[in-house]
Q: What sequence folds into this?
């Protein structure tokens, strides 16, 4: 084996190593893209948020499906318990809103929600939600912050409206529910 053969073998080995690394990098990139798409779909299913840019921003902030499930449910629970009691219509409205947001019966998030609907959570839950929401909101531009606020509090308002009113008369949102909605909305202010 001459010098030319040795150089040719070395060149071939280097080329193979180069292309192997390129292939590994391409596979890793495809895997990361697939995982990002799956995380985005899961976040959309749990939160009910359909805005792609907002979903991307939440994921960039490290807010995945599990965290968002809890975040998106707290306003519903707080509004339902606003007057100190939870009636059947409020419970049904919360569960329907959660289900329409993609929360599946039997999931961890659904079980957590049911426990909050069975036993009123303490003020600490709302406090943690407000602090978390303030942190998230501070990391977002105004447009994203307003979309998130609209998505989360919109469902809570629909719960209040679904369970409120008397024989279809008067305001469908009680003063206590309106006070909770106002308090939760303040968490989105910079």
A:
């Amino acid at each position: 084996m001459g010098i030319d053969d040795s150089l040719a073998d070395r060149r071939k080995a280097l080329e193979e190593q180069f292309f192997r690394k390129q292939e590994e990098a391409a596979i890793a990139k495809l895997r990361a893209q697939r995982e990002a798409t799956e995380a985005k779909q899961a976040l959309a299913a749990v939160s009910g948020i359909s805005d792609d840019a907002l979903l991307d921003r939440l994921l960039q902030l490290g807010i995945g499906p599990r965290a968002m499930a809890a975040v998106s449910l707290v306003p519903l629970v707080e509004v339902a318990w606003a007057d100190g009691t939870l009636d059947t219509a409020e419970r049904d409205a919360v569960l329907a809103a959660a289900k329409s947001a993609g929360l599946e019966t039997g999931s961890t998030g659904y079980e957590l929600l049911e426990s909050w609907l069975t036993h009123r959570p303490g003020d600490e839950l709302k406090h943690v939600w407000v602090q978390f929401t303030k942190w998230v909101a501070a990391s977002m531009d105004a447009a994203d912050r307003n979309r998130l606020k609209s998505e989360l509090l919109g469902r809570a308002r629909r719960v209040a409206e679904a369970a409120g009113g008397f024989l279809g008369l008067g305001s469908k949102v009680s003063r206590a529910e309106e006070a909770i909605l106002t308090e939760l909305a303040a968490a989105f202010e910079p």
Summary: Residues 55-188 form one domain.
